[in-house]
Structure formats: C-alpha cells, structure tokens
Amino acid sequence: MIVTMLMVNIADAKAKLSEYVDAAARGEQVIICNRNRPVAELRAIEAPRKAPRDLTPMFPGEVFMTDAFFEPMSAAEVEDWEGSVIFPAQVVERRPRYGSSPSRSKRGKARK
After folding, report:
1. Is 13 left (phi over 0), alpha (psi -120 to 50) or beta?
2. CA 30/CA 22 separation, integer angstroms
3. What are the extents of the domains in the chain?
4. Cβ-count burial of 48 within 10 angstroms (0-12 exposed, 13-18 middle, 19+ buried)?
5. What are the residues facing 42 on neighbouring strands?
6. Beta strand extents in 18-100 (DSSP E only)
7. CA distance 64 to 58
8. Average pLDDT for residues 69-95, to the nearest whole number?
9. H-helix or E-strand containing 79?
10. Hey, what long-range contacts does 25-29 have (CB within 8 A, 24 or more apart)?
11. Mean pLDDT, residues 87-97 taken together
12. Reported CATH class of domain 5-42
C-alpha cells in the first residue's frame, strides 16, 4: 500500500479545502502547516457503522418512562436539581424600532 503525504500551508488549505478533504477520504495523509511548520493533520474518519443501532429499550416490555416524565417539576425538585430556587423569567416583548421614524443623515436632516 502506497501512502501519499501532502503538506500544505493554511492559505492553500483554505483555497482548496474540498480537494484536500477528497484526498484524505482516499487515505492520503494531509498535513496542514503554519509558515511551513506542521500544526494539524487532516484525515478520514473511521467508516460508519453498517447496521443501524438498536434504539429499543434494553429490556423488552419494560416501561422506562412514565407519564410523570412530561409533568413539570415541583419547586423542591427544581431546587434539588439546580441547587437553588429558580424563578420563572419574565418575557418582555418590544416592538422593533426600525421603520418607525425616518432615518437621519449625519447633519441631522430627515431623508425622504
């Protein structure tokens, strides 16, 4: 097996990134340099899994999430979880200021 190593400076890597990513995907080693000094390596990641992961519960038929999961926590539970009492944040919506008045030039005259 022949392994090719490419050494490129950052400017070249920025200009031709897709080419270097393709080279890394083919198995070539791409070294990125800063002022001709190696600082990083661009390489392909391991092949993805062939079979999808099993996302079912570990024990079939066992309920691992009850309806209580969707109900809000009490203040005591929140305090235990966060370490302090959390007060609900107040949401204040304001109208946007843009478009409400004519814009002014540097001299203070209104534009038409």
Report:
1. alpha
2. 10
3. 5-42
4. exposed
5. 30
6. 29-34, 37-42
7. 10
8. 71
9. helix 75-82
10. 27/3, 28/3, 28/4, 29/3, 29/4, 29/5
11. 58
12. alpha beta
Only one residue has tokens 């079939």, namely 60
The SS3 call for residue 104 is strand
Q: What is the pLDDT of residue 11?
A: 93
* Two structure tokens written together for 27: 């198995």
Instruction: Give per-residue pLDDT as tens, 6-62.
Output: 899 999 999 999 999 999 988 899 999 999 999 999 988 877 777 877 766 666 666
SS3 category, 110: strand
Query: Who contacts 33 (Cβ-Cβ below 8 Å, separation ≥6)?
Result: 7, 8, 9, 10, 39
